[in-house]
Sequence to fold (563 residues):
Amino acid sequence: MRLYFFGVICFASLLLTAQEKYPSDAFRSPMEIPLVLAGTFGELRSNHFHSGIDIKTQGRQGLPIIAIADGTVARIKVSHWGYGKALYIAHPNGYTSVYAHLRKFSPEIEAYIKKLQYKKQSYEVEAFPDFGELKVAKGSTIAYSGNTGGSSGPHLHFEIRNSVTEKPTNPLLYGYDVRDATNPSLIGLFAYPLSNEAVVNQSAKKIQLNYTKQPDGSFLTDTVKAIGVIGFGFNGFDRQDMAANKNGVYAVKQVVNGKVYSEYDFETFSFRETRYINTLIDYAHFGKFRQRIQKCFKEPYNRLGIYKNLHNNGKITVKEGLSYSVEIQISDVEGNITKLVIPVEGVRETAKIKKDDKTTNDFVLADKPNNFDLGAAKVYFPANTFYQDFYIELEKGTDTISIHNNSVAAHRNFTISFDVSKYTYDQRKQLFIARLNDKKMPIHSRTFKRDGSFTTRTRSFGTYTLAKDSVAPKIKAKNFKEKQWLSNYSYLSLEISDDLSGISTYNATLNGEWILMEYEPKTKTIIYNFDDNILNQTQCDLKVVVSDNVGNSTTFKSTFFRK
Ligand SMILES: [Zn+2]
Fold:
């Protein structure tokens, strides 16, 4: 049905639709279960657009992951964070498929990566096998699904990238069978007065608009009275069949009096531009309400390449006495469209709701570098750290400084340098720079220590302080006891934790030989697998050393027996 629909459009326009640019029958499903999605491509996430689809795995782990086509393993990465255990397969047709948050790889790939882990004596590794070294056939099992890395529940994160540009593309453009019979849902609509004199419904500030559902399924607002340059934004989501997950929408189009003013979609984007999401959404609104409004206009510092059409950057200049019909079309990848019509009348009215004109002593120019001395620490913002000029709120304190609030996004890292000259060398050892979280708990911020000063680089505003970690990590056996016979055991499991600065390194040996411990920070667990075959003696002396981020270290020793 979908192909037919797009086929007709293409025939009429002689332009390739997104679906037609990508092969629709080259790739099979990466799993053997129905594709039910917990996340769509381009979905709005923290500081990034989602670069693949999240396939639900029925709450389970260990389900087979299948090669979507013949290919060669191009990259294997094992990390505590991000993609966790991830596999990249290059296919002859110029695309690379990516499978992430895996529990483990197929035996051949698992053996390849274990060899490297033992050689480098590290769980976290990255490998780029030679072309053809690890070949896979379409339909073969290449891995097993899991929950590793930055995953908050079992699922497969699946991507299809252009092998040359490495740009991720929308996997749903390749003919996968993910049913979606319903239009995207609308949660809220907002109008933005953008120029200095602009007023919308007697407000000089962003204002929410009400709408009602029409018999044809579209939405209509009351007539908006406005003057000056204005823009619109909405908050919405898309839901596929078979799941309640609120996923991202595919495309947004804004038409004014029949002319396209802005249009973007999530066919593809580049990782380099992904953080510009903070200029696509209303970041101040997100900071306050944790809701992402997608703007239908483009801000000056927005460098996103996802726009297909722009007129006046999607901004509408409303003139007195004229009327405008603004239509916003929000669609999913299946072509279901939610339409929203906003009649606008050019009427000059005074603003009853005034602009916030809160000022502070410090004004930041986005395109210039900015330095601030806050006593306990100095803050340096390089040029182009921000998307806007603004009055910044800065607070001085003893050993603590506070930098603005979550209404403004930083695009680049800035530097915070604490003066630690009043501390002795010994005192400095256990100190680190911490950011206080919402519960005022110190969170370790990677600290570079030089004579007399500690420096950290960050993109997060908030309160920063010098914190002290004097307690060494804790290590506890989870599935075994001292002097126990473990002949029938397939693995050793221990719990490692640290109270403040966090775990930096962990190392384990059996009878003096380094062993691979797989660390899962979410469960604070390290696991050794007896299949690794390090043992040839009955008596085994296990030694585990764990250090935190300021260098406090704990050694755990235990003896067990095994035949
Ligand atoms: Zn994902």
Notes: The pocket of zinc ion is lined by residues 39, 50, 52, 54, 157 (CB under 6 Å).
